[in-house]
Design brief:
The chain is of the alpha+beta class. 32% of the residues lie in helices and 24% in strands. The strands form 5 sheets. Strands 17-14-16-15-19-20-18-21 form an 8-stranded antiparallel β-sheet, sandwiched between helices. It has a 5-stranded antiparallel β-sheet with strand order 7-8-12-10-11. The longest helix has 25 residues. It is globular, with a radius of gyration of 21 Å. The chain starts with 5 loop residues before the first strand and ends with a helix.
Length: 439
């Protein structure tokens, strides 16, 4: 191994700026063999190892004071299998590159989250998800996975090969090894029609079950300090494609959702008392629109305003009660909340540490503008969510520990047993994993 891909140790920060790490070394291996050598050297030096993606997690899941691995050179599509309808991709590939490449091949993932800046491994390892009545998270679309374990073994797993590892590693938190490649199920590219429509909080919550049942993908945003929401329904369409106009799309997605919203958040941070008035104006400025395009252009949108986030997965039947309790808490408190609350759903899946493991789920996500004190708000929200058997998103701010999480996940012990076998000396440990998984 040469040192041409080694980098001088420096300070690493995540996208939101709330997590900082100062690794001893930063490495960018260009192959699985070079990565194995990085692990060997780290073990000899008594250092822990953590791979990092684009830093879109709000937790310290990728932070390390040992060796930080950047996946910049572990990118690209290894192959497309049109008979099996799968694509195998290097773990460091950004989702936006994967989506564009699949579209050129006339293919698509079935479901995805609302941004695509993350790497393949980063997104799947933390359980990134969108919203879906029948289709689940990105990790649930994995059909096979390649993992470099602590002893240098390249372990390939699937439902047929090492199924116990496969059940754990699709959302592995970086605790089982370094993901080097992922094989996703894909399908022929299709069209989605998005229908965005303002709706009152009372109507959305009253009709929530119906809205979820009648739409393939339903989500909504509630604006705190108001009774207003914005809803989005995505359903498959026979076409024709009718994307947003160049000008109208720019006004909605860039000028209003990023530019004006950035100004509003800055004003709110400087003058918190202005936030309720800003929220009322912002929520009333929304208008209905409908457009049709290929999936990743409908599911995802640019997010340039930086924030911190907490998200909990609840049993789907608990969502409305929890939302109403959250709204009542905000209304009786002195809190001033500048960001909408996001609500999505997912069907039950079979992954050990998936937030939807074994149960149909609803996700409630709260955000605050970066630099705004968030502890009081997030603490109050977390108290509500844990009262409904909530499971925190692994990549978003929370205070839960292994004692709580072992009770929240029926298959928690299954995951930790795989971890004990694959990484007995905790080469991939850090403070966050010690808190959420135990040691």
């Amino acid at each position: 191994m040469t040192d041409t891909y080694a980098r001088t140790a420096n300070t690493w920060r995540n996208w939101a700026g709330n997590v900082t790490a100062r690794p001893v070394r930063v490495e960018s291996p260009a192959s699985v063999d070079e990565l194995a050598e990085v692990l060997r050297r780290a073990s000899e030096d008594g250092l822990t190892v953590k791979p990092v993606g684009t830093g879109h997690s709000f937790t310290a899941t990728a932070a390390t004071d040992g060796v930080l691995i950047r996946p910049d050179l572990l990118t690209g599509i290894r192959g497309v299998d049109r008979e099996a309808m799968t694509v195998t991709v290097e773990a460091g590939t950004p989702l936006k590159r994967l989506n564009a490449a699949l579209a050129r091949e006339g293919l698509s993932l079935t479901n995805m989250g609302d941004i695509m800046e993350q790497t393949v491994a980063g997104a799947t390892s933390t359980g990134t998800h969108g919203t879906g009545r029948d289709s689940a998270s990105i990790s649930a679309q994995i059909r096979a996975l390649e993992l470099l374990t602590a002893d240098g073994t390249v372990l390939r797993c699937s439902a047929e090969e090492h199924p116990d590892v496969f059940a754990a590693a699709r959302i592995g938190l970086g605790a089982l090894g370094v993901v080097t490649a992922v094989t996703f199920a894909v399908e022929p590219v299709f069209l989605l029609t998005a229908r965005e429509e303002p709706m009152t909080f009372d109507r959305v919550t009253a009709d929530f079950d119906q809205l979820v049942t009648e739409n393939e993908h339903f989500e909504f945003y509630w604006f705190p300090h108001t009774g207003n929401c914005n809803t989005k329904r995505n359903n498959r369409s026979a076409g024709p494609a009718a994307p947003p106009g160049r000008v109208s799309g720019w006004i909605e997605d860039e000028f209003l959702s990023n530019g004006i919203f950035q100004v509003a958040c800055s004003v709110g941070r400087a003058v918190p008392m202005a936030i309720p008035s800003i929220a009322r104006i912002s929520s009333r400025a929304l208008s209905a629109r409908t457009y049709t395009d290929i999936p990743y252009k409908v599911f995802t949108s640019p997010r340039r305003v930086r924030f911190v986030e907490m998200e909990y997965a609840l049993p789907r039947e608990a969502a409305v009660a929890a939302l109403r309790e959250l709204k009542a808490m905000v209304e009786r408190s002195p809190l001033r909340i500048s960001f909408p609350v996001e609500v999505r759903t997912a069907p039950a899946d079979d992954m050990a540490l998936s937030t939807a493991s074994g149960r149909d789920s609803a996700y409630i996500a709260v955000h605050l503008y970066r630099g705004t004190p968030y502890q009081a708000y997030f603490t109050a929200v977390e108290r509500i969510m844990t009262g409904y058997d909530g499971r925190p998103h692994w990549g978003k701010i929370h205070t839960r520990d292994s004692g709580y999480l072992a009770g929240a996940y029926p298959r928690f012990g299954e995951f930790t047993a795989v971890r004990d076998r694959l990484d007995p000396d905790r080469l991939f440990a850090n403070d966050y994993l010690r808190r959420v998984l135990g040691d």
